[in-house]
Design goal:
Helix content is 40%, strand content 17%. With 341 residues, the chain is of the alpha+beta class. Among the domains are: 128 residues, Immunoglobulin-like, CATH 2.60.40; 89 residues, Cupredoxins -  blue copper proteins (Immunoglobulin-like).
Length: 341
């Protein structure tokens, strides 16, 4: 029963589009050129379908109004005059012609939109590799360039006004990358590398979601896109290159020791330490992220403690095991992780 309630709450959270500090995800409020093209196509389709609906409903009402009435004294007519038949034929022909014209118009609009989506220039573009995991997002900046490469999870920071090329991959099942305010959906197919281009024209925090059912915790596989001014983005990117700071006091040192001696070190990496695993998210700057567990929880001390000690309560089926620690060790670990900014 609890599992059902957990799943239902996750679905409601995904439908509401609320992710701690992020605005409502809304494809009808485009904040980038790609999303604007999709929004324009949607308006064209909505307008065309509205006209068709009104025309069909009007014809239906008119047909009912003009239909012959039958009474006991006057049986209904079983034949039409030649003029009536010609009028009906013309009406059907006109309706077919308008339908064909409307479909062709939608086809042209779709092709034009597709070409516009593929035509975003990538000169001086930012390259980001996104791997969809079950159930979180691994984000690698400038893959292939060791001097500029760094890794984060479940958040994409991008500079406003600069095109971004996303290289989408999946090691397990089909996922779908979708940030409604900025770009259309794009599937992540295991064994293939697909690309998606986007550009944010308005600063802000935009919520994204996996849009392809990928397993039990599909509804809790969200991410945030933080669009920043170029100078602010460069400052953030530079900070991501830094290794974890040396613990400043005995409590943080004890927390690092607890991390190194616990199962955490088997899955996570912290740059500047001997923790270099790649199964789970990189935790080098985990305290600077807005959420935990791929948008499931706000990144606070209490939620972090709950996520460490009982992750299955938060995301049943997640690959993260529970870590049982004495109270003092847990508090030291939390203090250390909170210092990783």
């Amino acid at each position: 029963m609890s599992a059902r309630l957990n799943f239902a709450s996750s679905v409601l959270a995904a439908l509401s589009g609320v992710a701690y500090g992020a605005p409502f995800q809304n494809a009808l409020l485009p904040a980038g050129v790609q999303a604007d093209h999709v929004h324009t196509l949607w308006l064209i389709m909505l307008g065309t379908c509205t006209v068709v609906f009104i025309a069909l409903f009007t014809a239906f009402v008119a047909a009912l109004w003009r239909a012959p009435r039958s009474t006991e004294e006057t049986p209904p007519q079983t034949s039409r005059t030649t003029g009536t038949e010609r009028g009906a034929t013309r009406a059907v022909a006109l309706g077919a012609a308008l339908s064909i014209a409307g479909l062709l118009g939608l086809l042209v609009a779709s092709v034009v939109t597709d070409r516009a989506l593929a035509g975003l220039p990538l000169k001086d573009g930012l390259v980001i590799e996104v791997n969809g995991q079950q159930w979180w997002w691994q984000v690698t900046y400038a893959p292939g360039d060791p001097s500029r490469t760094f890794e984060t999870a479940n958040e994409l920071h991008i500079p406003v006004g600069r095109p971004v090329l996303l290289k989408l991959q999946s090691p397990d099942v089909i996922h779908s990358f979708w940030v409604p305010n900025l770009a259309p959906k794009k599937d992540l197919i295991p064994g293939r590398t697909l690309t998606l281009t986007l550009r944010a024209d308005t600063p802000g925090v935009y919520r994204g979601q996996c849009a392809e059912f990928c397993g039990y915790q599909h509804a809790k596989m969200a991410f945030l896109v933080i669009a920043e001014e170029p100078a602010q983005y460069e400052q953030w990117a530079q900070s991501q290159h830094d290794s974890a700071k040396e613990p400043a006091d005995a409590v943080r040192k004890r927390g690092r020791q607890v991390f190194m001696e616990s199962p955490c070190v088997m899955c996570h990496a912290i740059q500047g330490t001997r923790a270099n695993a790649r199964t789970g998210p990189d935790l080098t700057h985990v305290a600077s992220r807005m959420t935990l567990a791929a948008g499931t929880l706000p990144n606070t001390r209490g939620h972090l403690a709950g996520w460490i000690t009982n992750p299955q309560q938060v995301k049943p089926g997640a690959n993260m095991p529970a870590v049982t620690l004495p109270a003092d060790d847990l508090q030291a670990l939390l203090t250390y992780l909170e210092s990783l900014k």
